[in-house]
Amino acid sequence: MKDLTHGSIVSHILSMAPPIVVGMITIMICQLVDLYFVSGLGEAAIAGVAAAGNAGFLVNALMQVLGVGTVALMSHAVGRKDRSDANLIFNQSVVLSLLFGLLTWAGGIVLSRPYMRAIAADEATIEAGTTYLLWFMPALALQFATQVMASALRATGIVRPSMLVQALAVAINIALAPVLITGWGTGHALGVAGAGLASSIAVCVGVLMLLVYFHRLERYVAFHPEQWRPQLRQWKRILNVGLPAGGEFVMVFIVMAVGYYVLSVFGPAAQAGFGIGTRLLGLIQMPALAIALAAGPIAGQNFGAGNGARVRETFVKASLIATAVMTAFLIVAQFAPGLLLAGFSNDPETMAVASLFLRIVSFNMVSQGLIFVCSSMFQGLGNTKPVLWTSAMRICTYSLPSIWLSTWPGFRMEHVWYLSIATNSLQAALSVWLLLREFRKRLAPAAQQRVTEPPIPESVAPPLREPA
Q1: Global pTM?
Q2: What is residue 265's predicted lDDT score, i.e. its pLDDT?
Q3: Are 270 and 417 in contact, with CB atoms under 8 Å apart?
């Protein structure tokens, strides 16, 4: 366990962010590798895999429910030096991860084809996306366990083990992708099914590695089967914090789905270019998101310890660092979009759409960095409802007008991307205002006394056994 209530906040952010960003970038690279090898199968395969991958945003919403709830409540417990509560939250989150994983797998089997029919431009794209989703669903289901274990470590200030496991899992995925998709060395090409299968195998290996780490090396939190009996009070604590943050990802899913929908009139090449552009934009936003994710447990531990001044300082320092990083990547996206997009498709129309998307929407990057930081700070404070409000505001100001614009004569795809810049800036301004209001409401008393949430009684949380 790493105590984040003392020492330089900038140092804590800069030490935690690189492993986080490496882990996230390796996951994004994995998705881009799938697109890269699938690109040889044609436009329909690219559009299908990209659109199907968007379903991952919806599943990520459920993952965020567990991840955010686990990080917030465990970091508060760590700040209070309440190890029993931290372990109870962790073990109850593990139980929820198993339940959510099973529901995701079953839902994917039933809903994959209806989802693809709702957003795809033609039958070939529907078939490719459905096939990919069915083979990719085991990976999404297993990610719940990965999310809970990684979140528990991050709440205690430990990020390197999760990064190493993710990097190794992605390396396995990258190695398997060409073998399974194109049949390299085997002569048995599985096409888009191979892309999904490669991811599922890699995630399974990653879960096994994290289980070994917790069993052999982790000392602050551990698996305690006696705490696996469902406790509705603890589930309510986790879900009260996590559900609004999960709702934020649902809003992102809706925004992305609307993007595919309004572009369907331009054909699969436009959808494929949009899919490549969004994946690449997500990749270059990862450093700012990592900075925000590092700030969350710092704010959480200090809020739990009653250090209101350090919570405010965490927001200021994280915002400045994220803004600097996003500005640098904005310059790259403006002056070298072709370099960033090189190799993803041989189709000129697809690449033209991706390049145009990247040049326009990259102007969102600075405001998106502030949104990331504000969201993570709300998680650290244990109140994620404002995040849901700002995301809902964006749905109202972006998605509905986008659909309306798409019905106009002379509609062009860049119209909705310019609208995205305006609505993203509005969301950032509202997020900052709500966060400052939350500081005024919650940090004044927190500066005078510690968080007063009582420790869990011994009858609820059995005494912990020290690992051998």
Answers
A1: 0.74
A2: 74
A3: no
Half-sphere exposure for 151 (CA within 13 Å, toward CB)? 33
72 contacts: CB under 8 Å, gap ≥ 6: 155, 241, 242, 296, 300, 379, 380, 381, 382, 384
Amino acid identity, position 303: F
DSSP structure class, residue 106 = H
Return the closest-CA partner of residue 385 out of 460, 435, 326, 334. 435
Alpha carbon of residue 427 to chain centroid: 18
> How confident is the model at residue 458, as a pLDDT?
39
**Structure token digits, residue 325:** 């990083």
Spell out, as residue ranges, where the chain has pLDDT lower than 50.
446-468
Cβ atoms of 23 and 154 within 8 Å: the answer is: no
Q: For CA atoms 277, 164, 16, 1, give the dihedral sign.
A: positive
Cα separation, 125 vs 77, whole angstroms: 48
User: Burial, 456: exposed, middle or buried (Cβ in 10 Å; 0-12, 13-18, 19+)?
Assistant: buried
- DSSP secondary structure, 397-412, as one string: IIIHHHHHHTTSTT--
